[in-house]
Amino acid sequence: MDIPRGTYGFRFAEDKELQLCVLFAAGYDVITSPSYRWDGLERTDGPLLLFQYTISGEGIYESGNRTHRVTAGQAILAEIPGPHRYYYHPESREPWEFLFLLFRPNLILPHWRKFLREAGEVPYLPLDSAPVRLSRMIVVDAGAGRINDPLAASSCVYQFMTELARMQVTTLRDRETWPENVRRAAEFIELNYSRMISIDQLAEQVSLSKYHLIRRFSAATGLTPGAYLTRIRTEKAMELLRGTGLSIESIAEQVGYSSGSYFIKAFRGLTGLTPGEFRRGDESLVYRKLFFD
Q1: Which residues constitute the domain of residue 190?
Q2: Does a structural domain hold residue 232?
Q3: Are residues 29 and 75 in the same domain?
Q4: Looking at per-residue confidence, does 285 or 223 come out higher?
Q5: Domain boundary among 142, 175, 208
Q6: Residues 207 and 116 reside in one and the same domain
Q7: DSSP 199-210
Q8: What is the pLDDT of residue 271?
Q9: CB within 8 Å of 274: residues ≥ 6 apart
Q10: Which of 156, 175, 194 lies at the terminal end of a domain, its last residue?
Q11: Dihedral sign from CA coordinates of 78, 83, 87, 92
Q12: What's residue 284's pLDDT?
């Protein structure tokens, strides 16, 4: 997914009659200079909540008397103002690449602090997790000018926060309880969705019969292996539809469908939209894919 580099700010007029979440800024950056440094007690733009997710490279996050190395897959969760600092690792040999979101605490602070208590200030989130995918989409939509009113911005913030909380109470907990062969099957699907995959092949990979694979996978995840594959393909297609100019046929091929018509049917069956409708933004920014389960 092509992510536009830069920072996008939002300053919509406040509506006294509506209580909305407030998106302050979103962006993507690649840092190579030791001069990159933020001090949470020196900033004057608060109160804000910061979610900053490292894609590659390394930074340092200091909070109170704790120092964290922030590497790929880790996020910084910080309240501004606050007793923290974060900066480019002075000994890093590669750029620090990250996504970030800044939003006001309005309406979401209890959810934020609950996640913070359970996950910590520098949690690990898989690159393919729902909050990270959604943060990428928010930055892409910001760069494309699609977040153009306070309701759309509020939708982005609340949806992101909901997925962050949902990940902690469901995905992280539940996946750890999956049997090892179910986890291996899910990982195989996630890595090979574009060239996939018969149930027989998947069963062979995890040393189960086809019957036992379907039964155990469905019991652990709530989805059959085929439905899980469709979900992964649809999520990947959403990123390509919003983040690239590829044709529907090309996207269908990239995510593993033999034809555009089959792709359209599967996509609409899961989301209620055709790929073209999703790309055009005919619906709001409430991405239905986040509620597949």
Answers
A1: 178-291
A2: yes
A3: yes
A4: 223
A5: 175
A6: no
A7: HHHHHHHTT--H
A8: 80
A9: 264, 267, 268
A10: 175
A11: negative
A12: 45
Closest CA to 10 of 143, 147, 132: 147
In this prediction, residue 290 carries a pLDDT of 34
Is 181 in a helix, a strand, or coil? helix
DSSP string, 65-101: TEEEEE-TTBEEEEEESSSEEEEE-TT-SS-EEEEEE
**143 in the same domain as 96:** yes
Question: Do residues 60 and 70 lie in contact, with contact meaning Cβ atoms separated by under 8 Å?
Answer: yes
Q: What is the pLDDT at residue 161? A: 94
When pLDDT is cut at 50, 70 and 90, the band that residue 169 belongs to is low
What lies within 8 Å, CB to CB, of 243 at 6+ separation is 1, 2, 3, 136, 137, 140
Question: For 112-167, how does the pLDDT look when each residue is reduced to its tens digit (9 = 90+)?
Answer: 988 887 778 888 888 888 899 999 999 999 998 999 999 999 999 999 999 888 77
In this structure, is residue 61 part of a structural domain?
Answer: yes
Residue-averaged pLDDT of the chain: 87
> In the beta sheet, which residues pair with residue 79?
49
Buried b (16+ CB within 10 A) or exposed e, 190-226: eebbeebbebeebbebbebeeeebbebbeebbebebb
Chain segment 180-203, per-residue pLDDT in tens: 999 999 999 999 999 867 889 899
Look up the CATH number of the domain holding residue 281. Answer: 1.10.10.60
CA 9 remoteness from chain centre: 20
The secondary element (H helix, E strand) that includes residue 7 is: strand 6-9
Contact 84, 40 (CB under 8 A): yes
pTM given for the model? 0.64
Task: Kindly state whether residue 1 falls inside one of the protein's structural domains.
Answer: no
User: Angle at CA 207, nearest 5°, toward 201 and 213?
Assistant: 70
Q: Is the pLDDT of residue 13 over 80?
A: yes
263 and 230 housed in the same domain: yes
In 3D space, the residue among 181, 264, 207, 196 whose CA is nearest the CA of residue 229 turns out to be 196
